[in-house]
UniProtKB/TrEMBL annotation:
GO CC term, one of those recorded: plasma membrane
UniProtKB keywords: ATP-binding, Cell inner membrane, Cell membrane, Membrane, Nucleotide-binding, Translocase, Transport
Protein name: ABC-type peptide transport system,ATPase component 1
Main localization category: membrane
UniProt-listed InterPro entries: AAA+_ATPase, ABC_Ni/Peptide_Import, ABC_transporter-like_ATP-bd, ABC_transporter-like_CS, Oligopep_ABC_C, P-loop_NTPase
């Protein structure tokens, strides 16, 4: 598959009063063209920080300290804020758990989508409005004209989610980042939004980075999955390998705790014994070692690197040290 975005050695830190929170500890991740890549892991493992770093929306006191993010031959980390603004919402867009984050309560839905099109696609007012209504229809919104003329608070949660997806897709982005897009919705609406995302993938071929802690969602919509633990990617593989041949002890714990028959049910990931480590003083070596039943001496000393252990299957764990190095 063709690589769309290549993240290498990404380190993002937060400089808080109590110390430096080492939120991302050298993330390596390629996103392929047209794939839906899931990022899973417990709350605070760095899923959202990875996404926000990717579009350079890390706020103070956070800072990207190392690494590169190659996209269209450019390193996004080196771009100016002005150059980044021409990419954000245009070539790479993001949708959030809470759609109100994307909309200004003061303006109509249609005018806000039109504004994105005027800015990035240089459409005039009239053409932008027309395209905005088309985009609302495209995501399955009935009566798109009326919704375009509505203010955000006039719409239900599910409709607002669709409107946000319409806005995110307005400029036909190469990558759509979706951070827990269905978590705030009730189960029926969740299912509809997931169906919509699967359908969009087929219709427009946009790559999707889907952040979730819901393994049912992952098995339902993702092609590949990256499992994150304490600011690192511990395993990366196609969705079947993750569910049926998990290699990392953390992944094994996650998957092992779910009866296979229940894969489509809404399973949460917070089932591994022990607590999430403090990232101001993270565990040495493998950050999972205090919770790992297979921990060896080397695990406390050396950080395991991602290694290729099979077709499209990567794992960061010293149990696989005898396997040839990745790259
Ligand atoms: Fe467990 Fe060691 Fe593998 Fe970490 S590197 S997951 S501690 S066996
Ligand atoms: Mg999050």
């Amino acid at each position: 598959s063709e690589v769309l975005i290549s993240i290498k050695g990404l380190k993002t830190n937060f400089y808080t009063y109590t110390g430096v929170v080492k939120a991302l500890d050298g993330i390596n991740l390629d996103i392929y063209k047209g794939e839906t890549l899931g990022l899973v892991g417990e709350t605070g493992c760095g899923k959202s920080v990875t996404a926000l770093s990717l579009i350079r929306l890390i706020q103070n006191p956070g800072k990207i300290d190392e690494g590169s993010i190659l996209f269209n031959g450019k390193d996004l980390i080196k771009l100016s804020e002005k150059e980044m603004r021409s990419i954000r919402g245009n070539k790479i867009s993001m949708i959030f758990q809470e759609p109100m984050t994307s909309f200004n309560p003061v303006f109509t839905i249609g005018s806000q989508i039109a504004e994105v099109l005027i800015l990035h696609q240089k459409l005039d007012q009239k053409a932008a409005w027309k395209k905005a209504v088309e985009m609302l229809a495209f995501t399955g919104i009935p009566a798109p004209e009326r919704v375009a003329n509505s203010h955000p608070h006039e719409l239900s949660g599910g409709m607002l989610q669709r409107a946000m997806i319409s806005m995110a897709l307005a400029c036909n982005p190469a990558l759509l980042i979706a951070d827990e897009p269905t978590t705030a919705l009730d189960v029926t609406i969740q299912a509809q939004i997931l169906e919509l995302m699967k359908d969009l993938k087929q219709r427009i071929g946009t790559s999707i980075l889907l952040i979730t802690h819901d393994l049912g969602v992952v098995s339902d919509v993702c092609d590949r999955v990256g499992v994150m633990y304490a600011g690192t990617i511990v395993e990366l593989a196609d969705v079947n390998s993750i569910f049926f041949k998990p290699a990392h002890p953390y992944t094994t714990g996650l998957i092992g705790s779910i009866p296979k028959i229940n894969l489509t049910s809404r399973q949460k990931l917070d089932t591994i014994p022990g607590s999430v480590p403090n990232l101001i003083q993270p565990p040495t070596g493998c950050r999972f070692h205090p919770r790992c039943s297979k921990c060896m001496d080397i695990c406390k000393k050396e950080k395991p690197l991602l290694k290729n252990i099979g077709e499209n299957h990567y794992v960061a764990c010293h149990l696989y040290d005898s396997t040839p190095e990745l790259r």
